[in-house]
Amino acid sequence: MANAKTNLKGRSVYVVDGSRTPFLKAMGPPGPFHASDLAVQAGRLLLARQPFEPGELDEVILGCVSSGPDEANIARIVALRLGCGERVPAWTVQRNCASGMQSLDCAATNIASGRSDLVLAGGTEAMSHHPLMLNEQMVAWLAGWNKARGLSTRARQLAKLRPAYFQPIIALLRGLTDPVVGLSMGQTAEELAWIYGIGREEMDAYAVQSHHRLAAARKAGHLDEIEPLYAPNGTLYLDDEGLRADTSVDKLAGLKPIFDPTVGMVTAGNSSQVTDGAALLLLASNTAVRRYKLPVLGQIADCQWAGLNPAQMGLGPVHAMAPLLQRQGLATKDIDYWEINEAFAVQVLACLKTWSDKKYCREQLGLDKPFRPIPPARLNVDGGAISLGHPVGASGARIVLHLLKVLERENGRRGIASLCIGGGQGGAMLVQRQEGK
Length: 437
Prior knowledge:
This protein is α+β, with helices and mostly antiparallel strands. Among the domains are: 137-170, no CATH class; 183-222 and 301-430, Peroxisomal Thiolase, Chain A, domain 1 (3-Layer(aba) Sandwich), CATH 3.40.47.10. Helices cover 36% and strands 18% of the residues. The chain is built from 15 helices and 16 strands. Strands 1, 2, 3, 4, 5, 12, 13, 14, 15 and 16 form a ten-stranded mixed sheet that branches. Strands 6-7 form a two-stranded antiparallel ribbon. Strands 8-9 form a two-stranded antiparallel sheet. Helix 1 (35-48) packs across helix 2, helix 7 (185-196) crosses helix 12 and helix 11 packs across helix 12. It is globular, with a radius of gyration of 22 Å. The two termini are 12 Å apart.
């Protein structure tokens, strides 16, 4: 079987290695790691086992949705903490849930064009550290208080203070709400359930499958990209915290809908988990591979971004994967394994329905005929975000790294990793293993 054509203009782009942290479930209070801490721990062991020094990297690119005020341009902070030195430039990208994949696309483009030979790229997110913010009334009151001079003026300003001003704004919830259509990401998932007739039991069954597949992968040792994570208090984290190996459809049936309490079907059990985590990959040109005698895990062949109705953002993978396959002259049967990020169970199920729906492919994608169905046994074979979590800045890098690991393990040739993106976008990346590998 021939390799896919690369749509990256210029040189080939190779993935030589990668690692990630365990994904830690947000439990309420801020977790033990900031986003930069996670990326540093994922990158430290990754770089330590390489035959080159960190300062020989050409650049560091990281995706992060909300790094916080102390981590502006978080990629630069991470690069310096990893010992890359002052001369290695670093920059941060943000494309919501696909930020980690965007960093890989940027790195691949620079390598293909000849601007870089060796790049550390990926993503990180500490969702438990997304801040609480003051509402506008409180900000205005504080501005008035700051201007007040003298006891009488301050007394008048103090009299204007109202209990409602103390109501905080949860940045995470605001960030997961689309301001254009006024819907949270969970509400867009409810819309897909209603449009495509996907029921609660079907969603819960998919969620159970995600947990069971992750449990099987862990037992079989198929998650060797995870690096140990050490907290400042000495606690050691070795595995993703979200796994519920004993879950069942009956157990999930007892959970209440969280986005539409009246008639909704999307619950915490059939949605991705809010987590902290990081995933990093080393990308290299053929020049760097030869210079340092690097092993090759796979090749990034192509990438596609697409836009669609924000109210149906969960279908983004379909809109990105379809033109990617068309450009490459590939069909469903030509892809050995697939990763579609599990933002919501219903979102993945809706993608599978529309992928092979004649009317949708004709009217929304402009195709003469639909694609053949994606085999469930080849999709998210080791579980996904429902069971292991979705640190939004890191997930795009994680699914690409794990897809390459699956291809290596199963002797597969090609794979596609894809995500839906808040705001109505989709991203997809085509990876492949070298001939003879």
